[in-house]
Amino acid sequence: MPKDNIDRAIKKASGADAETYDSVRYEGYGPGGTAVIVEALTDNRNRTASNVRSIFSKAGGALGETGSVSFSFDHVGEITYKASVGDADKVMEAAIEAGAEDVASDEDGHTIYCGFEDMNEVSKALEAVLGEAETVKAIWKPQNTIEVDEEKAQSLMKLIDNLEDDDDVQNVYSNFEVSDEVLAKLSA
Question: Could you give the residue ranges of the DSSP H alpha helices within 67-118?
Answer without folding.
Answer: 88-98
